[in-house]
Each structure stands twice: as structure tokens, then as C-alpha cells.
Amino acid sequence: MSKIIAVHSYKGGTGKTLLSVNLAAILAKRGKKVCLFDLDFRAPSLFAVLKVDNAECWLNDYLNGTCEINKVLIDLSSRVKGNGKFFTALANPATEAIRDMSAKDRKWEMRALGRLLSLRNTLLNEKEFDYLIFDTSPGLQYSSINAIVTADYVVVATTGDRSDVDGTRRMLRELYNLFEKKTGLVLNKVLDPASKSKTGEVTSKVKTVYQVPLLGMVPCFCEILRAEGNLIFVEDKPDHPFTKIIDEMAKKIDSNEIN
Amino acid sequence: MNNYQCFVRLNKPSTFSSTVHVKNTRGKPVTREEILSKKPLYILEKIKENLEKLNEKMEVMIELQKHGRKEFQPLPDASLDVMTLLSMPDHLRKTAMTICRCGRATAEDVSQQTTRARAVESAYLNQLVIMGYLKKERKGRKAYFYADRESQG
Prior knowledge:
The structure holds 2 protein chains of 2 kinds.
Chain A: E1 4-8, H1 16-29, E2 33-39, H2 46-49, H3 59-64, H4 69-72, E3 74-75, E4 85-89, H5 95-102, H6 106-126, E5 131-136, H7 142-150, E6 153-158, H8 162-176, E7 182-190, H9 196-210, E8 214-219, H10 222-227, H11 233-236, H12 241-254
Parallel strand pairs in A: 1-5, 1-6, 2-4, 2-5, 6-7, 7-8
Antiparallel strand pairs in A: 3-4
Helix pairs in contact in A: 1-12, 6-7
Chain B: E1 5-8, H1 16-19, E2 20-23, H2 32-37, H3 40-67, H4 82-87, H5 90-102, E3 104-105, H6 107-114, H7 118-130, E4 135-139, E5 142-146
Antiparallel strand pairs in B: 1-2, 3-5, 4-5
Helix pairs in contact in B: 3-7, 5-7, 6-7
């Protein structure tokens, strides 16, 4: 069963953070104990989306080996309805921290991989988390490949943009396949997907082009743009079609229908 | 040199004392009486252990010949990071990834995960040790392999 999920993409702006936050929130709503990690150290964003600015320690500190993971975790369970637990681990948004993370060498990245891998034991086995969700930086960054190697399942966010399609295809072939990762594609910002024939057409096209299963298809919703990243959408708009789509994805992941 | 050096002649299996010559650590031959009366099981275990070590070395030599020595030149400062994993040949990447996940494992443990033969994994693990990506540590009869992340840098 997939316990560690990395949300990744070839290009920026494909909706990774939106997917990660809402997927984590909906899994928590379904009664799961979830932790959402901001692994985009070059452009941290979860602190702003989740409106947290009082972290005792950052994920940067954990990867540097200067603090334990317990001190990084922030309990946001009060933000989600239901019996689930929702935690987050944030990347430090300070400019100096971003500069510091950009200058790390291969040896540091190797140790960081070891620390990410050890989360399986400390959080999944000992603290009994059900899911760890990694929001990664786009493309072939060390931090995102570390996240992919650690993950059981990779959600690849993509759009219909020509350069994104080509890059995603290359990444599927030359990155996820080499690491033998189970992968699911989320086609985001789809225009006019209303009719069933259109949905079927897109699904078969995705399978032909990318040769991986389609986890979900998200239409371009103006309400999401209007929210300007101020909402945990699935929490604040439970009846919105976007919430239903994310719930469907969570159901597939939770019932292990993602092979 | 190991505790015992064994020389096995297979042409006379019926006469034990004349077919197996075991030398102890001081180089003196162990007599038939000693073998039968003292620690025959222990000696057999040592023979098995030495044969396993020999087998591992032969597997590495076979792989070195198969792939050419250049591919396995030890790197002075090798680190098993994700970019290194990406640039590895497929057969070694699978083994290295398994060690990354397990942290510390024997060839047997790795073979259970990869569903490849133990001897194959043993050869690949030893190649990774030669290349400087893994460390090997013996504990009793078991050889453990691991990526030494903390001591580097």
C-alpha cells in the first residue's frame, strides 16, 4: 500500500501545491493521520497557504540534522472536520535559508535522502501516520528526486501545455521508470471537460501519450483562481466539483486502486 | 589469513583423514582424532564460511571480467546520492536502491526484496563496495552492507 506520496511535475505552476494541500486535507477528513511536507526549498509556499508563521523548527533543520522531526511537525487538525489528524512540516521561507539550501553539495543531499528515508520508520511505524505527502519542487532538483526515491507513489501534475507534455513524458521515461516508481497522472487545468465523450477521449489520449494510469482530471475552475490560495478548498467548499474530484483521487489511493 | 585453511580432494570421499587437511591458526595440521573428538561441527562451519567467502570473491572477479574493469574503478570520494543512482547501470541501481531503503542488509535480505538470486545480489553488493558506494561489515558469519551517509562530508 502506498503510504508516502510525492506530488511532482516537470514545470512550475501545474498545481502541485493545490493538489498536495487538498489531497492531504481530504485524507484527514476521511479519518486518516496525515502529514504534509513542503519539500520545495527554493520556493516555499505551504507556510503561506496554511497561514503558519510560528514554526519551532523547519524541515531544513531536520535535514541539516540539527533537530528531530517531532519539533518540525505542526498539528493543524483543528482546521479539518472529522476524526482525522492533519500535520504539516514546513520549509523555511527566509531568503537566507533558501540561499543556504541552494548551495548544498552531493554529500549533504545523500544525508538528506537518508533522513527522508528514515521518516518511514519514525512517522509511519512509530507515530502511526497513515500518509506522508511530499509537495516537491518542479523538475530535476535534488530535493524533488530525493522525495521521489523515498515515495511509494508519485502523483505527476501536468497541463496541456506543449512543453509540459514533452517534459513530463521525458521525466516518466527517464526518472520515475528508472526508479521503478508507481506513478499516477493528474491532468490539471483541463478546458471544457464537461461531456462524457470528451472525458473518455482525454483519458485514452493520456494513456497513449504518457503510458501511465490517469489518477484524475481537474477542470480549470475560476473559483480556485478567485480564492487566491486563501482556502483549503476541500474544507471550505465541500460541495464544489473540485472537492469531489480530489475525494475520488483520495479514494483510489486509500483503497489501493492505483496500479 | 582465516583461522583454518582447507584443502579438499574429492577423489577419495570415503577416507576422511586422507581427503581433508585442516590447518589451525598456528599452521599445524589438525589430527583425525582432534577433528572427530573435539569440534567437528565447528570445523565444518568454518569450511562452509571460507567457501562462501571464496564464492563471493569469485563472483566479483566474474563480474569484473564481464563488464570490464573500467566500469568498476573505485572512486576516492564516492557518495550514493540520487544523481549517482540515476547514472548507475540498471542492475546495480536496483541493488543500491534496496540498500538505501533498508539501511543495512545482507545479500539474502536484498535478494528477498529484488527477487533475484542471493549470489547475484552478493556480486552486485560487492561491486558497489569496490566502487566505494557501500561499506561492508562482517558480524559472525553474516556480511552486512550499508551506505555510510553520516561519516562522509
